[in-house]
C-alpha cells in the first residue's frame, strides 16, 4: 500500500489534514517547511521531507498498513521495552492506537502531540499505570520526543528506542561516525566488541553502541548530504541494516530494500525487563531524537 492510497477525511489546520489509510488514521502535514505523515496506529511517523529536499525517512515499498503489525520503515516507537526481553517484541506502543492530544503551528514548524495511556489491553502484557506523550516538531529539522510518566503507585522499569529508518542512496557508499568504538554485537550472541570509529555499511549489522556521542552522523555520499542524529535521554544507540538474506525473508520489505536504508536509533537499552531505567510514581523521563540534514562538504 502506498502513501498515495490515503483517503482524505478532514482539514485540522492550514498545514494538517486527517486521512484514512486501510482503516488507519493518518495525519498528513504539508507546510512551507516540510512534508510529513504520521499514523495514529503506533504513533508512527513514516514520512519526513524538508521542502526542496529528498526524503529523509525510509519507508518500505511493501510496508503493510494494518492494526495487526508495525509499519516497516519510518520511526517505530519501541516501548516500554526494547528487543525481545518481553512479548510482544519491542513492546506494545508501536502497535497501539495513540490519541491526538493537540497540535499547533507557526512559521517555523508544525507541532503534533499524541498520547497513549494504560488500558485493559496494555495491562494484559504490562501491569503498570502510565501516560506517554509523543511530540513531533516538524520543520526544516525533525524532532521527536517520547515522554513517559509513571501514573501508578509502584515503581516500574522501562527500555525503548526511537527506531528511525533513514533513507540513503546506497548502503555501500554510506558510512557512520559518532557511534563510538564499543558495541554489543547482536549477531554474535551479544558479544562485546571494539572497532574503529567509522562504520562502513557492507554487511548485516545489528549493533548496540554503548558509548555513542550525542550526535551521530550518517554520511550519505550518493545523495551528497550528511544526516545528523542528535539523541538525548538514551544510554546507547542501535545501528541496524538487515542486508541481503534477512531482507529476502521479510514479507514487508523488498529483496533489495537493505540497499537504501539504515537504522540509527536513540535507545535506552536493558538486557531484561528488571534492569531497565527506573521510574518512580509521579516521575517522568524522556527519550528524544533530532534530525538535521546538511549538504556534504
Automatic annotation (TrEMBL):
<keyword id="KW-0413">Isomerase</keyword>
<comment type="similarity">
    <text>Belongs to the glucose-6-phosphate 1-epimerase family.</text>
</comment>
<dbReference type="InterPro" id="IPR011013">
    <property type="entry name" value="Gal_mutarotase_sf_dom"/>
</dbReference>
<dbReference type="Pfam" id="PF01263">
    <property type="entry name" value="Aldose_epim"/>
</dbReference>
<dbReference type="GO" id="GO:0005975">
    <property type="term" value="P:carbohydrate metabolic process"/>
</dbReference>
<dbReference type="InterPro" id="IPR025532">
    <property type="entry name" value="G6P_1-epimerase"/>
</dbReference>
<dbReference type="InterPro" id="IPR014718">
    <property type="entry name" value="GH-type_carb-bd"/>
</dbReference>
<feature type="active site">
    <location>
        <position position="265"/>
    </location>
</feature>
<protein>
    <recommendedName>
        <fullName>Putative glucose-6-phosphate 1-epimerase</fullName>
        <ecNumber>5.1.3.15</ecNumber>
    </recommendedName>
</protein>
<dbReference type="GO" id="GO:0030246">
    <property type="term" value="F:carbohydrate binding"/>
</dbReference>
<feature type="active site">
    <location>
        <position position="163"/>
    </location>
</feature>
<dbReference type="InterPro" id="IPR008183">
    <property type="entry name" value="Aldose_1/G6P_1-epimerase"/>
</dbReference>
<dbReference type="GO" id="GO:0047938">
    <property type="term" value="F:glucose-6-phosphate 1-epimerase activity"/>
</dbReference>
